[in-house]
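Our consortium's second objective concerns turning raw sequence data into structural hypotheses that experimental partners can test. To show how far this objective has progressed, the report includes one record in full. It was chosen at random from the queue rather than selected for favorable results. The single chain below, 379 residues long, was entered without modification.
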Amino acid sequence: MIFRIDRDVLAEAVAWTARSLPARPSVPVLAGMRLEVTDDQQLKLSGFDYEVSAEVTLEPQSGEPGVVLVSGKLLAEITRALPAQPVDFVVDGAKAVVTCGSARFTLLTMPVEDYPSLPAMPPAAGRIGSDVFAGAVGQVAVAAGKDDTLPMLTGVRMEIEGDTVTLAATDRYRLAVRELKWHPEQPDFQAIAMVPGRTLADTAKALGGTGAEVEIALSSVGGTGEGMIGFSSSGRRTTTRLLDPEFPKYRSLLPTEFSARADIPTASFVEAVKRVALVAERNTPVRLAFRGDEVVLEAGSGDEAQAVEVLPVDFDGDDINIAFNHQFLLEGLGAIDSDVARLQFTTSTKPAILTGGKPVDEGATPDYRYLIMPIRLSS
């Protein structure tokens, strides 16, 4: 097996494929990256850990067919450090030689016959712009749980009804919901899938920014069989197994009536929360007091360090004192993608809704909603 390819093209493809490789593989070959030059002169790089697969297809400058398995992490480190010259890759017996300019590396190969076959791509379900997809997933995945002992809270729920996709995630302390449009293969297509949040976020980010469309493929969605979801764009494809579709009935958690509403410039709000939070202990809240045309931010109390800051606000409704985990609040503000942050309240002990901007239609439901649970203040 021999191929020659541009260094930047190879380094980017190797880095993308290496993302799917397990940090602690159950068997040594799963740490490997499979490289294949096909009979039609295509170079395919792939990785698989029985949960997530990734494959990139490239067009080398030249090549001779063959297959090899080498350490994916080592290959990624090598290709990232190579000079900006064409790369020659040659398999010689049990070794692979990588040459680029005056640099030369020899890698031991791994038994390719022990490497598992990549799963087939599920049936195509529809398409969506890569930038829209990456933005929407980033807004929702921030609320996905990190506790693997509660797997249903580590996923992002994907609900598809015709040309509308609803993404939702929660870790019990906040809930993020985003609705967006896509192009389904069938106009009446319906499906529900629970996608691992970390994998979905990494995939969306990696496929975003290309300007191309992402094709989404689904199998066994919403049923009892083992489901799989796949994403492909610009010569890259990845698949992952779906989680159990069980998920909280989140729509009933979203309030529809409010006693107060505050519009605050997002940038100044973020900076103020960051400053006040400097004195907040890990599990202590930032307190917000909305009065008239201002909000008072406070943290710390008693003999501890304290901070206070006042911001102007466009406020309507009953005065309210409420407190939030500052990190959850900052992550929500970072996700709304708007110059103005809108907070809507019912009471100081019930969830608040954070959205972006002043909507053109005040009665319309925003595309993105971030529900955040308050921290009860001691009287």
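The partners drew two points from this record. The chain has three domains: 2-114, 124-251, 254-372. The first strand starts at residue 2 and ends at 5. Both points have been shared with the crystallography group to help prioritize constructs.
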